[in-house]
Amino acid sequence: MANWRRYRSLIFGRSSHAAAAALAIAIAIAIVFALTVVLTQLAQAQTFTVLHQFTGGRDGANPAAGLTMDKAGNLYGTAAYGGGGDCNGGCGTVFRLTRKGSGWVFTPSL
């Protein structure tokens, strides 16, 4: 009988440590999941503002590349089509966006 008590103590002692470890892992996973959900929702809350609607004329069309900012905060970009020149559909253009008050002023290249 004494041997049974000793083995039972070893078995249940080890299983309680395993249960505590499993519970700690489950809590850690739940915390990571909750943070992922919250941070994903915050990232999805971003909004974008259209600074210029391209017409395909002198201002260009299909601005597929990103913008570059100079030290003064002006934004520069390119449009693949439109603009001027002898190309069929235009040769594209380079443009600048300058901050003015709460808006932006669009200036295509000459």
Describe the secondary structure blueprint for this structure.
Elements: H1 2-44, E1 68-69, E2 75-79, E3 93-100, E4 103-108
Antiparallel strand pairs: 1-2, 2-3, 3-4
Please provide a written account of the structure:
The protein is of the alpha+beta class. It has two domains: 1-47; 48-110, no CATH class. Helices cover 39% and strands 19% of the residues. It contains one helix and four strands; from the N terminus they run αββββ. The protein has one helix at residues 2-44, and strands at 68-69, 75-79, 93-100, 103-108. Strands 1-2-3-4 form a four-stranded antiparallel beta sheet, with no helix packed on it. Strand 1 (68-69) and strand 2 form a beta hairpin. The longest helix has 43 residues, at 2-44. It starts with a helix and ends with a strand. The model has no long low-confidence stretch (mean pLDDT 80).
Keywords:
110 residues; 2 domains; 4 strands; rod-shaped; single chain; four-stranded antiparallel β-sheet; 39% helix; alpha+beta
Instruction: Report the total helices.
Output: 1
Q: Major sheet: size, sense and barrel closure?
A: 4 strands, antiparallel
Coarse morphology: rod-shaped
Radius of gyration: 31 Å
Q: Report the end-to-end length measured between terminal Cα atoms.
A: 99 Å
Secondary structure class reads: alpha+beta
Helix content range of the residues, please? 25-40%
The H-and-E topology, N to C, reads as: HEEEE
- The count of β-strands is 4
Count of folded domains: 2
Could you give the order of strands across the largest sheet?
1-2-3-4
- Percentage of residues in strands: 15-25%
- In round numbers, the mean pLDDT is 80
